[in-house]
Amino acid sequence: MEQSRIDRISELTRISRTRPLTQAELDERATLRSEYIASVKASLQGQLENTFLVDEQGHKHPLPKRNP
Predict the structure, then answer these.
(1) 37-47 pLDDT, tens per residue?
(2) How many domains are there within the chain?
(3) DSSP assignment of the chain
């Protein structure tokens, strides 16, 4: 996610502390937040896919997948 979009989320949060947000601003903030959450989840998924466990013999094994 671009830094400008993250900055916009922060800006909308600061505005909400001084006055109520308009419906358009609320919708924009909700959209930006969902994009941010999706980006964090994708980043974490990528990290987990590239994480390996090493056993006593030095063999690498990928992390087992877990079902929620």
Answers:
(1) 999 999 999 99
(2) 1
(3) --HHHHHHHHHHHHHHHHSPPPHHHHHHHHHHHHHHHHHHHHHHHHHHHT-EEE-TT--EEEPPP---
